[in-house]
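Here is one chain, start to finish.
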Amino acid sequence: MSITAQELVKQYKLRLTPAMENDLLSEESRLKKELEAVPFNSEETLYKSILQMIIVFYEENTLEENRSLLQDHELIKQLSALMWDDIQIKLIPFLIQKNFTLSEIKELLFDEAYYRSLHVLVDFGLTQDIPELLAHQEKREQLKFINTLANDHCRKLCLIFWVKGSLSIKEIQDIVNATSHYPMLAETLIALDKTKTISIKQLKKLALDPKKHQQESILYHYSEQFKAYNLRKSDLSQLNLDDLDALGKSFKVLKEAGIANDYAYRLVLKNNKTGQLLRLFLPGLAKIESLSHRKALIELLYIGAQKGVVTQGKALLQIKDSNLLVLARALRERFICVQQMQDLGFKKEIIAFTGEENNINSSRFRHVIMRVEEKCKDIHERLRKSSLDKDKVGNWQRADEKYRQTLYSIAYDGITKSGVDLHIKMKSAEKEILSIVDPEIKSIIHKVLVVIANIIITALTLGFANDLKESATGNYWFFNQSPSGEVIRALNKEVLTTIDSPELITISP
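Its structure:
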């Protein structure tokens, strides 16, 4: 009584890939005919091995060329205990072709480090020198090390260096470290090697040159975008290593979100403030699980970069999703603060610190920035509208930028460094700006009137009004300071409080 292919699979626990399972279910399945045509053999291990080999060779489209091997029952019996992995079966014809002895074949098929590595090299067509290389114990030890690598692309790249180069374990480890730090590197170098336009020495040199291989990785992984949007390859040479790293991550976010606008890629590629701004924020959006939210935040980011924070604010008001709104507000605050740091000419490290998420110190710094910007705008508007302060507007505009730069520098040092006495620096900055918005009263009559007014207020309120004023502005008396001067003093006091009391600020969502 004949047995069906499906029954053979079940009885002998044959391994089938999903593709082969579907093949067996089809009415015209050739695999089914091949399995059912195998003469039954009472030696179960031999019979099972032949059936499994047929399945593997059939899927590899090498069944016809391996017919003679399937008839060599003595060899199959010798190797039947070494067929627990389909890769082992795939390698048998190659090992025979390369004239390995039976004992050598058994040794290579027994050790996973050998048979998995050889399978990759056969797949790459890098087989010419394998017998000679395997004759060296050091090269065998290297294969064992390479087989421990978790990343598939990294493992394949190291095998290319193993077969083509004379690298030590340490040099291979250097390659591994580079691919670990730069995720796109291994796949890029494998693709370059396949072009046969670069020597193994050049490949090694490129692997250890971060700036050059970052450029190559971006060009390889995003070749479609460069072609479709006419992006300039020369722009890559204008970016430093950190910028290239951020650019690769930014391109990945845009691609995975399905952004197909040429300007989106062109703007983030540029070596200017806009490009820097986008490269700072786009990588962080990768963690947003909701694709619709991620796309909305990308759009909001580009609105701010292209049209400014006012238009960005209007776009934010159109958001109805409460969860998205929380994310959008947090993104916009970071965007505004980073842009201010850019406009004031701060270094990249401070700009990057300003935009950091989930960092209590960055949140404190942004709190300072938002408060300072708000109060400085209030002072400008007060001076502009006041008929008495018209002459101060020009002086304020000239001093405002320097004042903010000084205040932010003091705040940054206070937040990021320990043991820094900021009060002297703050007093100096305060004195300089107050000379413009709150010059010292020189009129004797004016001074007398201020004293009289304060005596009356103190008497009528028993000093309560003065206490409230001192708490808010740091100044106990009334009328001896201009409104703008009081704002400056209160602002400086608030900045110092923010620096000295980190527990008062929480991380933005």
